[in-house]
Amino acid sequence: MDQDYERRLLRQINHQNLSERRLAKSGCASSSPLSVKSGDRFIPTRAGSNWSVNFHCANENCRSPNQNHKAKEAGSDTGKDAVAYAALLRNELLGAGIEAVADPHADGRRQALPAEGTHSLFRYTIHTKRVPCDSGNEVSPYSLSPLSNKSHKLLRSPRKPARKISKIPFKVLDAPELQDDFYLNLVDWSAGNLLSVGLGACVYLWSACTSQVTRLCDLSVDGDSVTSVCWNDRGSLVAVGTHKGYVQIWDAAGGRKLTSLEGHSARVGALAWNGDQLSSGRVILQGPGDPAEGAASSGHLTTSPPGGNDNKLLVWNSSSLLPVQQYSDHLAAVKAIAWSPHQHGLLASGGGTADRCLRFWNTLTGQALQSTDTGSQVCNLAWSKHANELVSTHGYSQNQILVWKYPSLTQVAKLTGHSYRVLYLAVSPDGEAIVTGAGDETLRFWNVFSKTRCTKESKSVLNLFTRIR
Predict the structure, then answer these.
(1) Residue 378: which residues within 8 A CB-CB, separation 6 or more?
(2) How far are the Cα atoms of 102, 140, 215, 388 from residue 159, in angstroms, in the given order?
(3) What are the pLDDT digits (tens) for 40-53?
(4) Which of 77, 153, 154, 86 minimizes the C-alpha distance to 115?
(5) Where does the record place the CDC20/Fizzy WD40 domain (predicted)?
(6) ω before 397 within 30° of 0 (cis)?
(7) Among 202, 200, 181, 271, which residue's Cα sits nearest to residue 232?
(8) Which of 18, 26, 70, 197 pairs with 414 at a CA distance of 20 to 30 A?
(9) pLDDT tens-place string over residues 405-417
(10) Are strands 442-447 and 433-438 parallel, antiparallel or unpaired?
């Protein structure tokens, strides 16, 4: 080798080594291209990526706020479609072998797809593991579909139809002189499909089958007015509470008064039947709290001085003059109370404007179970006869109707339309529909517990209950 060339080459190598040592001392050796040993390709790490979320966010950025709002409203209906589509992609791209997906909205909680391993999506090597012919994932060579057998089973898996509750009432009736009073109970639905409504000094009966209206009684001749109505279990008798403190029993079929009971010194705001036994007071509900003892619950609104609120919920039985249980968790008047028809001893209650909470109690043990803040005054509660759900009506300040799933306490539906507090609530005898009343002098009928409608909609022949268009 030429000596001159050798000297130049050694000088270049020494200069390069000196540069590397200087970079190492300054902490920049890792950034030197000479110190990094890499292949000819760059493979990004996507193990922590969530393509569904990223794709959704990208679409949201391209849409207007109004389009995003509509998409979120439709999300509840298309949630299972999105989960099924994601499972289909996993089957075809990753060989996940998913044959069925769960309802993403079951019990108010989204069901996530089973997570794959945390291995990288892209690899240098290719898996050559053959799928056994008897695994059910083998695709017939004569099949015209590009999908695997697992994906076909996924697409053929039975789907529970999405539940939809109409946000508008299927009937609206005019109810003049329906009072805007939180402590009254002026609407009740009988087992014979008759609706009793107290309007001013009169009680009217409206047939859900024929839409005919009859006047049952008129208390104006006695200078009195109606403060509560309640049907007995068979739907043959109507108890009527009055402003002067009387309790009248009327025969609905014959349209005649059977008896008038005295004893109250103030208006009778609530009535409740338990067989042939009738309870009356300010707010009281008899029901299956303990059938052996005939338990009743009372939202205790008055103390010794009439009109005082103590915000207590009391549970009584027929064998004692004193309440057997007392709950003091509510911070406002307790009018909304309802016994569960599905769980023995379960009682639900709702507080007024200063409380706004739904609370649930185990009256067999005296234990407070759970509660939730509804955001507005709770006026009424009613349980579904067929499902473990309940409906609540509200006043200040949203005047809404909420359908809840128990025990998750997730909202199934929110219904609006009343312009005043929704003070009155009754459930149809088949347990599918409800009627609500408010100080806006309207009665609104909603299908909340079933999609089917049991009665044919027809127009009333009287001006008293004319449909509002």
Answers:
(1) 335, 336, 350, 351, 352, 355, 356, 357, 358, 392, 393, 394, 395
(2) 9, 26, 49, 21
(3) 666 666 555 555 55
(4) 86
(5) 307-446
(6) yes
(7) 271
(8) 197
(9) 999 999 999 999 9
(10) antiparallel
CB atoms under 10 Å from CB of 314, counted, come to 19
Q: How far lies 220's CA from each of 165, 202, 203, in Å?
A: 41, 8, 11
Helices (H), 203-324: none
CA pair distance 361, 156, nearest whole angstrom:
43
Q: Which residues in 243-366 belong to E strands, given as ranges?
A: 247-251, 256-261, 270-274, 277-281, 284-286, 296-300, 312-316, 325-327, 334-339, 346-351, 357-362
Question: What type of residue sits at position 397?
Answer: S
pLDDT tens for residues 189-231? Answer: 999 999 999 999 999 999 999 999 999 999 999 999 999 999 9
CA neighbor of 411 nearest in space, from 394, 431, 391: 391
Please state the φ and ψ torsions of residue 12, each to the nearest 5 degrees. -65, -40
Q: Which two tokens stand for residue 279?
A: 């309870």
